[in-house]
TrEMBL record:
PROSITE patterns, sorted: BTB
Domain BTB: 22-87
Domain of life: Eukaryota
Annotated CDD domains: BTB_POZ_ZBTB_KLHL-like
Species in which this protein is naturally found: Obba rivulosa
UniProt name for this protein: BTB domain-containing protein
């Protein structure tokens, strides 16, 4: 990149790159000057090293030390973040995924390893929780297969947003994601039907046709589960209402084909659809629901998610 003179700085932007001993000036595309050190930036980026080796313009900048200003294509916000990764400074705090996307693109452009290795962390953390569709878009544009797959699976927990809210997602990426999601719906529903009477039972997994054990209340006689014992406790077992359960599951998985969809609905409403009809005692109902949501459904959710990861690959075009 040829160092050039840029018009006078046009805006105020607070940043820490103002050292008087700097030996170069980066000027952002919106007119903000950053005083930088060639040696530090050359170590951080081979592209910067090449840039500094180019002939310098004979006309100085307006800086009081007559340093030439190198015009950069990035905005002040992006350039500030990029320089944070080049210098030994605290981690940059990204407030929006848009800025993160621009910084990652700059990191690829200038071959800055620190950005490509460290700036991806928010994609796996805060922004993944906030908007997995946007994370998928960034990962797709950056050709980050692992992050794209992670975001794709996280997006299954969400309803598909309106097209107006998918501005960051390229058309090709959206098509790939939606085709993959459709395959996940089919696979998830097939998986749940297979849990009713599986031909190949996996040890340690719970199936819908299995009995459910719990400790009903010790005074319960109405529901017919009361059994006296030397310890004053009793254990009961029953089979969930399988067809009602699967009907509920199919409806939920058609919108969000993942394990967490089974736990996000109204707890009591779901439980009463699948616990035995003849469990009339309120105490026993509560105990059965606790067992359902503490032990049974979490295991079923994990088994479903693992099945999706094993059998539905994300076919990226890079």
């Amino acid at each position: 990149m040829q160092p050039v003179m840029n018009p006078e700085p046009s805006m105020r932007f607070e940043h820490p790159f103002t050292k008087p001993n700097a030996d170069a000036i980066f000027r952002s595309c919106d007119g903000v000057d950053f005083r930088v050190h060639r040696a530090i930036l050359s170590e951080a980026s081979p592209m910067f090293e090449t840039m500094f080796s180019l002939p310098q313009p004979s006309t100085p900048s307006s800086d009081c030390n007559d340093l030439p200003a190198i015009l950069m294509a990035e905005t002040a916000t992006t350039l500030n973040a990029v320089l944070h990764f080049c210098y030994p400074m605290p981690e940059f705090d990204f407030t929006t995924i848009d800025v993160l996307a621009q910084v990652l693109e700059a990191g690829r452009k200038y071959a800055i390893d620190a950005i490509l290795s460290r700036a991806v962390r928010p994609l796996r953390g805060l922004f993944l929780d906030e908007d997995p569709f946007a994370v998928f878009a960034v990962a797709y544009n950056m050709k980050m297969a692992d992050e794209a797959l992670l975001a794709a699976h996280e997006s299954l927990k969400w309803d598909v947003p309106d097209a107006s809210k998918l501005g960051m997602v390229p058309g090709a990426a959206f098509v790939i994601l939606m085709h993959w999601r459709a395959r996940c719906v089919v696979t998830a529903i097939d998986f749940m039907h297979g849990q009713i009477g599986p031909e190949d039972r996996q040890e340690g997994e719970w199936y819908i046709s299995d009995q459910v054990d719990w400790l009903p209340c010790s005074v319960c006689k109405e529901c017919g589960y009361f059994v006296s014992s030397d310890w004053g406790e009793c254990e009961s077992e029953s089979v969930l209402r399988q067809r009602d359960f699967v009907q509920y599951v199919v409806s939920a998985l058609a919108k969000r084909p993942c394990g967490s969809a089974l736990l996000e609905e109204d707890i009591e409403g779901v439980a009463f659809k699948i616990i035995p009809d003849d469990l009339n005692c309120m105490g026993c109902q509560k105990t059965a629901m606790d067992m359902l949501y503490r032990s049974i459904l979490p295991g079923l959710c994990n088994a479903l998610d693992n099945a999706l990861k094993r059998t539905v690959p994300l076919m990226l075009d890079f």
